Every structure is written in structure tokens, then in C-alpha cells.
Structure of Protein FAM187B:
Amino acid sequence: MGDLTMSKVMPGPWPQPQSTMLTTLWLLLSFALPVLGFYVSVRCPHGKQCQRALLSNNDIFLHCNSSGAQWHYFFLQDGTNWYSHPRSVSNIERMPEGSILIKNPLPSQTGIYNCRDKNGLQVVQYEIEFQDVSTLHITHRGLGQKPLRNETLSLGGKEIIFTHWEPWQDCNRCGKPGERKRLGYCHIQEPLEEPLPCWLYLGDARLWSSRMRPEMQVEACNVQCKTSEGAHITFDNFELSEESESAWLTCPLGSIYRPVIWEANNTPLTWQGQLSGQDVSTILDPSNGGRRLQVFQPAIYRCFVQQELVARFNPRPSPDVLEILQKEEVGQQPEAGQARKGKADTVLKGLQLMLLVGTFLGLLGVLLKLFRPSQSKRRNQTLLVK
Ligand SMILES: *[C@@H]1O[C@H](CO)[C@@H](O)[C@H](O)[C@H]1NC(C)=O
Ligand SMILES: *[C@@H]1O[C@H](CO)[C@@H](O)[C@H](O)[C@H]1NC(C)=O
């Protein structure tokens, strides 16, 4: 791709690299575990420019391997202004190693993210397009639903609007039937040219078509379990709001970019159930790939990310619920529970959490029981309470 395309895409001021060639490279979507949590991250090789379509409303971590990193942003919609960190962009956080975390990015934050070292030399530059997740088109193969078809952009008639699909994510469960999803991003292709994400292609041309939407496709899967590296487990309580008679639960390490699944009383909550209207007892929030769940019953909900249990939500103890929990406790070993309690208490205090120690003990017991058969594989398992 030459600078011709570049000037069409971005007519505004452009941070000129030494070479005017726009190197569009593949990017790695990987997972990082910085201090604050577990984020999906985008990397670009040192000294390069990388282009990538992503979804709005889903946190993303942009890497820049430079200790004195200086970031500058150019948002396509604004046209002329460059923003430098830390002023003016409230949802972008600097991470200690020089990278940035963009929380709940907006479609209007589509643009250029430029990172320079302390001497002003470019380390990496990202062109990121945040496609509007509120327009996500979701289809399930098992229900015979079809993804969007290719269309031509009315402009000159030769440009095709199509969905560029990412690889399928892993199955969200193992050893039993699960589901997997893949994300697809709106792209536009001219004959003999490389396709570009739709809004980067259009630049400031105010053109819109109802075909310009990101997609998510779901299908059934069934895979064998592999040995795991251990999980971070969060415990939390919830209470149904009196007004809506529901509660929203958030799976802590979940993301639309990763396989997530919820279970209620050991029954999986599937996209198939939701999209077919069969399962109306809970609602998976599509805008974050089911990371958030709306519940209407005071049951126990668990969520798994990358096939690992990461969180368990209990209804805030009322007399009936305590009874259920007590039933579940039967069979636990008190000494093991005691030993873990001391350790966990410190964590709890440090993180200033409101957690009922009584139920906590019970939960640990259940957890130990659940995990005992595979404990040797999970030596790195840590307890992380939010
Ligand atoms: C980061 O940069 C340092 C020094 O420039 C280099 O040694 C290191 O390998 C880089 N790390 C990554 C992950 O690229
Ligand atoms: C849609 O367009 C893309 C890009 O030109 C092409 O790769 C794909 O095969 C097309 N799909 C169909 C069903 O025609």
C-alpha cells in the first residue's frame, strides 16, 4: 500500500515516518496481565505502523515498548487536532511500561495512536478503527442465521463492502458441548487494492450504508480438555435491584475478544438459547460478547473465560440462600478451609472488600472440593478478590 492510499484515508496532518511507505502489518492480539487486571492487547513490531479494526466499548491495551514513551492521538472525526497525553482524553490510561489502556473506546476514537520514545523517535504507530458495537450483527449457525452479504458501495459501484472475519475463538467449554464465536469487521475493497476497514477507507467522506456494521457469528463446538495453567477466581455477592428485579453481573476477565461462558446451577447459558428466545431467564449483553449478564433469579452464577472458572456470584445471603450454601458445604474439609482462610483474609483486607467471611469459608470449601482432582495441575492458582 503506497502513500496514495494513505492520503486518501487520512487527509489531515500525518506524523511522517522516515519512510513515506505505510507499512500495514498484521498485528498480534495477545493477552497481558499488567498490575490492574487482564487486558486484551494489540502489539505492533518496533518501528512499524499497524492497522487494525476493533470494537467500541471493549477495553484494549496498546503496546509501546519504551520507558519514556510519549503518546499522541489523532481522531479521524476531529480532523485537525493532535492530542498529547495526558491531557483531554479521559478514558485513556498510561500503564507503567509505556503502553496505554483505552477503556470503553468510542467509535469517535477511531484514528491514529502514535508512540515515540523520549528522544521523539517513533516506536510504533497504530491506526485503530473502533467499529460501533451497538450495531453488531449477531448470527448463530445452529439456528440457520446467515451473516451479512457482500454489497457494493454506491459511490462508484466498484467498491465492495464485506465482512473480514477473524479466526474462530476457542470453544468456551471443554469436555462438554459449548459454543465459539468469531468477530468480523466491516471492510471496503476496491478492485486490485488491499481492503481497508470501512471508516478508515471513507475518511471524512460522510457516507453511510446499513451494511457498514461489525458482525459476530456463533456456532456449537465440543473440544477435549487440555491441562490448564490455573485461574484467578473472584467471589462476589449480588442483590436483585428492587426496581428492575434484576442484577448485572460482570465476568472479571471476560472480553468480547475471548471465549466466555456463564453457568447457572451448572446449566450453560448459551447464545443459541438467547438468540432463539428459548432462554429468557437471563440476558447476555452482546455489546461485550456476553461478559455481562443480566439475571432475574437469586441463583449461583459462575463464569468461565478461556475454559477456566474465573468468578462465582452468590445472591446476597438471605435465610433461604444460606440454607442452599450450607447444603453445598457438606463434605468439605474444615482444616483445609482454615488454612486458606488466613491467607485470604490478608488479601481481603488489602483490597477492602465487603465479603461475608462465613459464606467465604463455605465457598472455599466448595472450591477446594471442585478443584481437588486437578490440584497438581493448578499449582499457580491464585486467589484474586476484586
Ligand atoms: C523492549 O525493548 C527492549 C530494549 O529496547 C528490548 O530489549 C526488549 O526485548 C523489548 N521487549 C519486547 C517485548 O519487545
Ligand atoms: C465478499 O467479498 C470479499 C472481498 O472481495 C471476498 O473475499 C469474498 O469471497 C466475498 N464473499 C462472497 C460470498 O462473495
Remarks:
- The longest strand covers residues 178-189.
- Residues 150, 160, 162, 189 surround 2-acetamido-2-deoxy-beta-D-glucopyranose (ligand 2) (CB under 6 Å).
- The chain has six helices and 25 strands.
- Helices lie at 3-9, 198-202, 271-275, 319-329, 334-350, 357-371.
